[in-house]
Backbone:
DNA sequence: TCAAAAGTGTTTGCAATACACCCATGC
DNA sequence: GCATGGGTGTATTGCAAACACTTTTGA
């Protein structure tokens, strides 16, 4: 079933900046466009809003349709409205940003896409349309977010080491952090539960694994915190 | 000239939450609606976007048209898209928030409005449509803003006392602050220039007046700061 | 002389920073 | 036994918080 038959709003789209963390690298999900304009180029997953849905719903649907990504945290970022941002006609686009753990999502191309793939955030990405600005704004928002809300639950495997968490923070912020201070502050938040499990098959002392205390995590997410990492 | 003749986008509007500070009270600008729906009720100034303008431009134009407010700081807040937020048809609305000094703006009703007036933010306001949510989101954003960016330049007269500035902060945050600590921190930012002028005709010791060092103010606005007021 | 707000410093505690060595493991 | 990353504690510093009295002015 094509989106067209579902009554789209022709001048309103949603674009999603989906961040994932894998192999110590922060990545962004792009899809290869099946149709014109910009056919064949790698773009942010996006699509038109239906007459029957709110923007949040559209974002969820579009991510599922274009790349098979489901059940994730989404947050509205900004609305882009340059007159010529889309070449065929005037379309304004609402940007969303999302965090997921790539390992939990098997990408597959969907409607309007021939492929879906992760790209390194720090690599050189040639975005079509105004997706460069959209991406930049979303990345910026992610960097703000990490300093006053807990983050990681959405991006890491269920059990992880403190070093993994620190790597995640370092990737997002683009700076390196002091190990001892990082641990002190993170553990001080009491949002991690230490497990009696350790890394396996590593050529060095095995790191203890932790999981998120989901309840505390949610509380912190609501009330936020305020420290320098 | 009516907006209709300028080719509006019928499903896309902008609503503005304009904050002003006067007589130690934080206020929001509302306009009285001339037409249906919600004729006669006090609403956020808003209007439809033209096919020929970006959202930021629309916000500027709409504020000027509805209430004669010009030349102000505007910032996009959020896009509201509930299917039934507007009763006549599906309209999504992009909210902006703005800060102005009421004394510098002579309100007068414009297109689609029969009146324009300031309302106390802390009073009971009966908003039409989903303007309650829009207002709440904007106020929330203002409260965030005040903690990590300088604010006040847009809301205060050119020359003002430290007490006025403190009152402004207290109004926005809805809590009272310690005078000595407030002064230490504000002066520490080096964004104020002390003048050799003082309050006049007050029945107590006259307060020194300050003005903003616009350059430092702008620098701080870009790089932000991070302290608890 | 009283009322009302302006103006001013110090102490205390906490949280951020900087920093270096021993531990466990696989090869 | 060596290379690799895991794990740990302390001293210092700077900033936030709490707090009360004197000064100026007009009525």
Residues:
């Amino acid at each position: 079933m094509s989106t067209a038959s579902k009554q789209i709003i022709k001048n309103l789209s949603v674009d999603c900046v989906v961040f994932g963390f894998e192999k110590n690298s922060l990545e962004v999900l792009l899809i290869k466009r099946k149709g014109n304009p910009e056919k064949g180029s790698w773009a942010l997953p996006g699509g038109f809003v239906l007459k029957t849905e709110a923007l949040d719903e559209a974002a969820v649907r579009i991510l599922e349709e274009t790349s098979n990504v489901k059940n994730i945290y989404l947050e509205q970022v900004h609305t882009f409205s340059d007159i010529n941002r889309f070449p065929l006609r005037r379309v304004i686009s609402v940007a969303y940003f999302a965090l997921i753990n790539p390992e939990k999502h098997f990408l597959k191309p969907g409607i309007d896409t021939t492929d879906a793939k992760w790209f390194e955030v720090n690599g050189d990405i040639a975005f079509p349309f105004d997706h460069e600005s959209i991406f930049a704004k979303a990345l910026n928002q992610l960097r703000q977010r990490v300093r006053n809300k807990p983050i990681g639950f959405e991006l890491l495997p269920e059990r992880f080491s403190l070093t993994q968490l620190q790597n995640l923070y370092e990737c997002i912020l683009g700076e390196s952090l002091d190990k001892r201070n990082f641990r002190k502050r993170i553990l001080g938040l009491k949002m991690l539960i230490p497990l009696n499990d350790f890394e396996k098959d590593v050529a060095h002392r095995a790191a203890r694994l932790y999981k998120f205390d989901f309840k505390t995590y949610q509380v912190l997410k609501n009330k936020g915190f305020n420290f320098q990492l």
User: Anything to note?
Assistant: The interface with chain A takes residues 9, 11-12, 49, 51-56, 76, 78-79, 81-83, 90, 92, 94, 226, 228 of chain B (CB under 8 Å). Residues 131-148 of chain B form the longest helix (18 residues). The radius of gyration of chain B is 19 Å.
